[in-house]
Prior knowledge:
Helix content: 25-40%
Distance between the termini: 34 Å
Strand order of the largest sheet: 5-4-3-6-7-9-8
Number of domains: 1
Number of helices: 5
CATH topology: Rossmann fold
Order of helices and strands: EEHEHEHEEHEHEE
Largest sheet: 7 strands, mixed
Low-confidence stretches: none
CATH superfamily: Vaccinia Virus protein VP39
Mean pLDDT: 91
CATH architecture: 3-Layer(aba) Sandwich
Amino acid sequence: MNHYFTNSNLKSNIQKKEVIIKEKKYIFETDIGVFSKKGLDFGTRTLLENLDLNNIKGDVLDFGCGYGPIGIFVKDNTESNVDMVDINKRSLHLAEKNAKNSNVTVNIFESNIYSNITKKYDFIITNPPIRVGKQILYEILFKAKEYLNKNGELWLVISKDQGAKSLVSDLEKEYIVNVVAKNKGFYIIRALNH
């Protein structure tokens, strides 16, 4: 779990990974100590393939951006303004390189959960860091309400094995929840801030 927070003590081994998302090619640089360093993970891919890109506009936050696939893909395929945050400095550095290499203009900065978030968004999109434990995970997902505009949408992916069903029923206490897709045990969840 340590890699979510710090990796300055890990050696670096940057690798380029070619990724095809919805028939578009991206080259992402990854490294030791960042999530899914071997390439785009199945959960994130499933999330991106199920986003309603025609509906995404305004201000978007990629929460826990890692090396950047969500924010970069959203910016590349919509007219939205994209902010990308992570607590992991190595991830942020890679996200900046990957955004530049993908010719997208995004705003990337460090934030411990929402500590450096100062505005509200129309969309918050995340493959949340499950390994931080339920308490922090729920803080991320439920505090998102405070950073969403009215009728703003929280989109996330979580696997059935990581408690997707109970999370859906818990989210329903605060949001209007729709399970947009299920694929090999991964749930794509849209939670509307009403």
